[in-house]
Amino acid sequence: MDDRGFDLEGRLHDLEDADLKRTLSPVDRVAERGYFAEPSGGELPVLDSTEALVFASNNYLGLTNDQRIEDAARQAAATVGTGAGASRLVTGDTMVHQDLERQLAETKGTERALAFSSGYAANVGTITALDPDVIFSDEYNHASIIDGCRLTDAETIVYDHCDATSLRTKLERRAAFDDANEESWLIVTDSVFSMDGTVAPMADICDAAEAFGAWVMADEAHATGLYADGGGVVQAEGLGDRVDIQMGTLSKALASQGGYVAGSSDLIECLLNDARPFVFSTGLAPPAAAAASEALHVARHTDVRERLWENVAHLRDGLESMGFTVLGDSQILPVLVGDREDALALADELQDRGVIAPAIRPPTVPERTSRIRIVPIASHEQGDIVKCLEAFRGAGEEIGLL
Ligand code: PMP
């Protein structure tokens, strides 16, 4: 404790003691196709035999080093500027932002869309601006949804993960309260869950919402750009007109930075007036907006999604036929290990074999469900997938999991 009452040292010690202290990665990303290379002696990273394949990023379409997207960002920087310079509502609005929003609305089949400076800001800004009376939230929803709920005066009711029956039970119970039918209710869920690879039962959630007069908000952070016509799960399941708010990030498949909300004109008008992270924050940097626009174009109009899904099928089949349990039903392939020490050992052995995929342990996931979260990306080649599978076989045998 210092003499002004702050105890940062104590907090860091506590984290260390509980084996929960996080640090930034010692490896730097240096090149295309999701490669990492170890920095040599603390110097600049080198591209040589220390290269390893990354199988853990959210760069799902492998576009973060794509020439077309780099060019779009460069051109926006040269013509519009490197920064927006102010909130969009002051002087920060540009054609680049509006073009991105037009494309997002078109992809999502909504009247309008609005870009935020991050997905986190989009979730917090939207939930607080809507300010519902009651929020029904999946137990595994992302932290930015949880924080948005905490910042409202709403009563937040948590339902079991991806369980529409649990949601209905909670809706039913709450509907018995006095004045329930005068309240505004919001159901919010990730569409694809990042640690479990599960996909929310969106159609059942929409049925429940309609039965109880609630709005539905889907966080498509891990789905945007990957499903039907470059949209998310909402598009894949034809639910565009039943989900009131489609939110997502520009930082995963769209290879950029920022977030968005797509919905009705009234929703977007309300958000641009009342969502504080939009109103009181500098507009998204124009190169980020331009990069996301170009990535969305590539996602919609090329075969890049097919390459991702081929890699996903190849890797899932290979892992399962070796005897590993692979959770979920999306592009995220969590390989269940169970024990946290085994998961750490497996991650180390994989790294020794040139595959980077960190162990995910409690408290991020429940006890006894430690896992390796494997994510193939569209730019992995067949040889990369084979190398990853060989690494799993070798590592699994080494530590006695196979
Ligand atoms: N929602 C979900 C489901 C996410 O996984 C993330 C990022 N990990 C976000 C929102 C936040 O997006 P961003 O990184 O753009 O702030």
Automatic annotation (TrEMBL):
The Swiss-Prot or TrEMBL record lists the needed cofactor(s) as:
pyridoxal 5'-phosphate
Q: What does the record give as the reaction this protein catalyses?
A: 6-carboxyhexanoyl-[ACP] + L-alanine + H(+) = (8S)-8-amino-7-oxononanoate + holo-[ACP] + CO2
Instruction: Cite the InterPro entries for this sequence.
Output: Aminotrans_II_pyridoxalP_BS, Aminotransferase_I/II_large, AON_synthase_class-II, PyrdxlP-dep_Trfase, PyrdxlP-dep_Trfase_major, PyrdxlP-dep_Trfase_small
The molecular function GO annotations come to: 8-amino-7-oxononanoate synthase activity; pyridoxal phosphate binding
Establish whether keyword Transferase is in the entry: yes
The record's annotation in PANTHER family points to: 8-AMINO-7-OXONONANOATE SYNTHASE, CLASS II AMINOTRANSFERASE/8-AMINO-7-OXONONANOATE SYNTHASE
Biochemical pathway: Cofactor biosynthesis; biotin biosynthesis
The alphabetized list of GO BP terms reads: biotin biosynthetic process
Entry keyword set:
Biotin biosynthesis, Pyridoxal phosphate, Transferase
Q: Which PROSITE patterns match?
A: AA_TRANSFER_CLASS_2
What's this protein's name? 8-amino-7-oxononanoate synthase
Q: Which organism is it from?
A: Natronolimnohabitans innermongolicus JCM 12255
Assembly and partners?
Homodimer.
Q: What is its EC number?
A: 2.3.1.47
- What's this protein's family per the entry? Belongs to the class-II pyridoxal-phosphate-dependent aminotransferase family. BioF subfamily.
